[in-house]
Design a protein that fits this description.
With 705 residues, the chain is α+β, with helices and mostly antiparallel strands. It is 35% helix and 15% strand. A five-stranded antiparallel β-sheet has the order 7-6-12-11-10, with helices on both faces. It has a five-stranded mixed β-sheet with strand order 16-24-23-20-21, with no helix packed on it. The protein has a three-stranded mixed β-sheet with strand order 2-1-5, with helices on one face. Helix 1 packs across helix 5, helix 9 runs antiparallel to helix 10 and helix 13 crosses helix 15.
Length: 705
């Protein structure tokens, strides 16, 4: 008996020893070969799709990677845990236990293949699949399989389990040029992978095993069978219940691909071209608002003749964040030249600059909203402006003149304040007005005789909404100096002037919809009906609309009031409950001014700041002369500003009572006196205007030191 055991035991020891030696040699060989492997390519070198995100990091648009793949960046935390559980249950249930190769799974696969004469189950771990995807080579030969195993060991040495899993989520193939879980979820379900149904998760687990043969858009039946096998395995592993598996198995498979998101197409293209080395662009745009306005623009464009296009910008004027930006209704519509970004196109702004002319006039004390001005044929140095309808209204208030967008009053006011000053204020707003080569700015700029972009107008009107303070509109959350030119520090208009302009524009005809709060807005129509504009604001938002032909050819009959304003109202309706009403200044603003300004105040063109009324008792300022530099002994001390003498303004003629405006602010005078004694607040310029009971006025500008 002992001899029998001896015969068995001794050879067993020898065999075991030999096996141990071979195993040890094998382990040494594997370690040696792993050490000799070329370094793994850095994860950062993996070409990914460039993505553009909105203000909440939601996807606006993606571009294919440098190797023409849809391969979007993704983090493990951004993927539904149900998918990960199903993936591990089906592909590699000991993923967190093995070191890259599951020997038990390999042996099981080998035995089953020998028994059935075909491959029944794979023995590859997720790490081995990542190794195959990295090298992008088939592994049908023993040598290739061995290289895959070595690479899997090296991956486990280099990365932790979560990093390896993320590599799989980035590289797994899902049919065509779609790689990675995020691109696959967007392609086959039209949504991010953060929330998946059991049926959706199972399909995404099944597709990478045979991505071309199981493509839902080509082989829906194959995709359904593979998905249901994953569901059955998930139920057996306890990931989902049998009832959930049965319900999910009954769901049909979608047979059409979703298009990749293509929101804010022009802005996305712009930031990608401007910053080509960035893989991730975070914008201030709001995806929901952008999608809503793009749908609105396409619907509106469908009612217009095909060459006509439109563009929209919406921004928060308190922060400067642009929330929506549409360069055209449809990037791919070539009949409308949809590829052209009309938010950046330089066009004539028509009458949209008139509010700034009036604002300057209010600031300089030339008039107030209730001042009277004559709307009649005018010849100023050979320039003879006419109104849009070639009719004249006679004597109107400045409020009425701006609301009716009369041309001759605007030109008269611009002559008074000076075209150079208007250009300077537009530049303070951060805009870049352009003139035709060989021309200089003159009175024609009041009617649109220069070039601005839609963003320029939105930015300028943002300053009106911001109490005259400059606003720098931006679309980039990161440092984007080219895109986001900051407005200057100096104010565009004084707060009081901006308030008066806003009060006038708030009185424009409003939409009748109950959902629409009042907005302050202005329209514009460029020469020859080429461009129609509408720009407006409320207490929070500023919006600008352009409509016209992209090639700059005329659209007969098109006007800002008729064509652009309805779109502007629709935009504000879409903004919904987040809107903030305009401040209610209608009750107190005129009262404050009427207490110091005679109701009959009348603006008239002046010569040397003297009213040309033809009367011998014409109102004029006798002292100081216009343009004088007065040494009043102003100096700053530790106790504050000390003035050696006050500013005395003497005037004659006209009819009492008088009112005086100093730098746009009213100062009452005694009815029997023809002078003003003013204690200056600081050195600098003082613009003084005197008005009498007949509406005549005279003004001087002096420098005090």
């Amino acid at each position: 008996m002992k001899q029998g055991w001896s015969r068995i035991w001794r050879p067993g020891i020898v065999i075991a020893a030999c096996f141990s030696v071979l195993a040890g040699a094998g382990v040494w060989k594997v370690r040696h070969d792993v050490d000799r492997l070329d370094p793994l390519p850095p994860v950062a070198d993996l070409p990914l799709s460039v993505v553009v995100l909105d203000r909440s990091d939601r996807l606006l648009r993606a571009f294919t990677s440098s190797d023409e793949k849809w391969r979007l960046p993704v983090k493990l935390a951004e993927v539904d845990p149900l998918y990960v559980e199903m993936l591990l249950a089906f592909e590699d249930k000991r993923f967190f236990e093995h070191g890259g190769v599951d020997v038990r799974a390999l042996m099981r696969s080998l035995v089953q293949s020998v028994r059935h004469g075909r491959v029944v189950s794979g023995g590859s771990t997720l790490t081995m699949q990542v190794a195959r995807l990295i090298h992008e080579r088939p592994t049908k030969s023993f040598r290739r399989k061995y290289e895959q195993i070595l690479t899997a060991f090296k991956l486990e040495r280099t990365f932790d389990k979560e990093e390896i899993l993320r590599l799989y989520l980035l590289r797994a193939p899902f049919g065509g040029n779609v790689e990675g879980i995020r691109a696959a979820s967007l392609t086959w379900f039209g949504k991010e992978p953060g929330r998946l149904t059991a049926a959706e998760a199972a399909l995404l687990v099944a597709l990478p095993q045979s991505p071309e043969a199981r493509r839902p858009d080509r082989f829906a039946q194959n995709a359904r069978k593979a998905r249901n096998r994953v569901l059955a395995r998930a139920a057996a592993a306890g990931v989902i219940s049998q009832g959930e598996a049965a319900s999910a198995s009954a769901e049909p498979v979608r047979t059409r691909r979703y298009d990749m998101p293509l929101l804010a197409a022009h802005e996305s293209r712009h930031v990608r071209n401007t910053y080509p080395t960035r893989a991730l662009h975070r914008l201030t745009l709001d995806k929901t608002l952008q999608a809503t306005l793009e749908a609105q623009a396409r619907k509106r464009a469908g009612t217009l003749p095909s060459p006509i296009s439109l563009a929209i910008i919406v921004a928060d004027h308190s922060s400067g964040d642009i929330l929506a930006r549409l360069g055209s209704p449809d990037l791919l519509n070539e009949t409308r030249l949809g590829h052209v970004d009309m938010t950046r196109a330089i066009r004539s702004p028509g009458s949209t600059l008139k509010p700034f002319i009036y604002g300057l006039a209010f600031e300089e004390g030339v008039g107030v909203p209730e001042s009277l001005i004559a709307d009649r044929p005018t010849n100023i140095g050979g320039y003879q402006p006419t109104n849009f309808d070639r009719a004249y209204q006679g004597t109107v208030t400045l409020r009425e003149a701006l609301q009716l967008s009369l041309n001759t009053p605007a030109v008269q006011l611009l002559e008074s304040v000076g075209p150079a000053r208007l250009m300077a204020r537009l530049k303070r707003a951060g805009t870049r007005p352009e003139l035709e080569k060989g021309t200089s700015f003159g009175l024609a700029i009041s009617l649109g005789g220069l070039g601005l972009t839609l963003k320029d107008l939105a930015q300028a009107y943002g300053s009106l909404a911001n109490g005259g303070g400059p606003v720098g509109l931006k679309t980039c959350r990161a440092d984007c100096p080219e895109d986001d030119r900051k407005a200057r520090v100096l104010p565009v208009l004084s707060p009081k002037a901006a308030e008066m302009v806003a009060d006038i524009l708030k009185g424009m005809p409003q939409a009748r919809s109950a959902e629409t709060q009042h907005i302050a807005y202005k329209t514009g129509t460029s020469y020859g009906y080429r461009d129609a504009w509408a720009v407006g604001f409320d207490g929070r938002y500023v919006a600008a609309v352009w409509i016209g032909r992209t090639d700059g050819s005329p659209v007969p009959g098109q006007t800002g009031q008729k064509n652009a304003v309805p779109i502007l109202f629709e935009v504000f309706q879409k903004l919904g409950p987040s809107r903030v009403p305009l401040p209610n200044t209608a009750s107190d603003l005129p009262t404050a001014w009427q207490s110091a300004v005679p109701p009959s105040l009348k603006f008239a063109r002046t010569s040397g700041h003297r009213i040309e009324s033809g009367s011998s008792e014409t109102l004029s300022i006798a002292y100081p002369p216009d343009g004088a530099e007065l040494d009043l002994g102003l100096e700053s001390t530790s106790q504050g500003l000390h003035s050696a003498q006050p500013l005395v303004v003497k005037f004659k003629g006209g009819a009492a009572p008088y009112a005086v405006l100093v730098n746009g602010r009213p100062h009452r005078t005694d009815y029997g006196q023809n002078q003003l004694v003013l204690q200056p607040e600081a050195p600098g310029f003082a613009n003084v205007m005197v008005m009498d009971a007949k509406g005549e006025s005279a003004a001087v500008s002096v420098k005090m030191r």
